[in-house]
């Protein structure tokens, strides 16, 4: 039986985290890998009671694991989760976010075709998080084309199912706490001609709380990512030969 690890970073999500756990636990329970699958919530140094609320849910959800770490941002927290999944024997890694924008009901169509692909990525064809965020995503896809000459419809969607060996192969190409790991994991799939697929998904407005990522932070993240892209591209080119 395939072991599934669902990785969900959380920062100041006290308004959403209980609902997120209740929505995603049935997914990991359905695909429980003989009891080895896990829903992993990673508290990224929240200043509210996200960690306490999530930890209390472990009493009624045996396949739930709640971790905590110092604040490092979304990217470093996702990487932390991926490494945890790999270290604990995951066969498949699924990543989504804790703000309620994605729909667990759409997971099954990814899972049913998993054996035919190295990675399956969500494509947010309609976005509920505003025009500016959609523009940022288009810019990111254009940057990936510039550096890696790959064309992808949605690089950074927080709805992705990947084989563990796919993730393990490409993590070493990134800096340890790289801030856009999902974008690169998408780009590498195209760059290295892996079997990948994009499936349209819905993307709702944030269901509660306040988004900690604003345009100023996006610009800052983008600048740092561009600074690292040159070295990452060189490493990827060397790997591809």
What keyword list fits this structure?
about 240 residues, alpha/beta, about 45% helix, globular
Characterization of this structure:
This protein is α/β, with parallel strands linked by helices and 241 residues long. It has helices spanning 17-30, 50-56, 74-87, 107-112, 131-148, 164-170, 181-191, 215-240; strands spanning 4-10, 38-44, 64-69, 92-96, 119-124, 159-163, 196-201. The chain has a seven-stranded mixed sheet with strand order 3-2-1-4-6-5-7, sandwiched between helices. Helix 1 (17-30) links the parallel strand 1 and strand 2 (38-44).
Short structural summary:
With 241 residues, the chain is of the alpha/beta class. It has helices at residues 17-30, 50-56, 74-87, 107-112, 131-148, 164-170, 181-191, 215-240, and strands spanning 4-10, 38-44, 64-69, 92-96, 119-124, 159-163, 196-201. Helices cover 43% and strands 17% of the residues.
Choose one word for the global shape.
Answer: globular
The percent of residues in helical segments reads 40-55%
What pattern of helices and strands is seen along the backbone?
EHEHEHEHEHEHHEH
Main sheet: strand order: 3-2-1-4-6-5-7
Structural class: alpha/beta
């Amino acid at each position: 039986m395939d072991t599934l690890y669902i990785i969900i970073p959380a920062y100041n999500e006290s308004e959403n985290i209980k609902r997120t756990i209740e929505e995603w636990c049935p997914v990991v329970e359905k695909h429980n890998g003989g009891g080895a699958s896990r829903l992993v919530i990673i508290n990224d140094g929240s200043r509210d009671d996200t960690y306490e609320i999530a930890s209390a849910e472990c009493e009624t959800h045996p396949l739930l694991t709640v971790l905590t770490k110092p604040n490092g941002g979304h990217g470093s927290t996702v990487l932390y989760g991926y490494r945890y999944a790999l270290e604990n024997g995951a066969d498949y890694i699924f990543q989504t976010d804790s703000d309620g924008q994605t729909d667990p009901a759409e997971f099954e169509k990814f899972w049913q075709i998993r054996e035919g692909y190295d990675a399956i990525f969500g494509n947010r064809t309609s976005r509920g998080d505003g025009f500016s965020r959609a523009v940022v995503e288009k810019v990111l896809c254009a940057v990936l084309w510039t550096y890696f000459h790959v064309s992808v419809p949605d690089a950074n969607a927080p709805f992705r199912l990947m084989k563990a060996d796919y993730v393990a192969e490409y993590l070493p190409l990134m800096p340890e706490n790289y801030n856009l790991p999902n974008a690169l994991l998408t780009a590498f799939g195209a760059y290295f001609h892996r079997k990948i697929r994009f499936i349209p998904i819905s993307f709702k407005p944030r269901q509660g709380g306040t988004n900690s990522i604003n345009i100023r932070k996006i610009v800052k993240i983008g600048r740092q990512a561009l600074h690292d892209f040159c070295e990452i591209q060189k490493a990827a080119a060397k790997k591809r030969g």
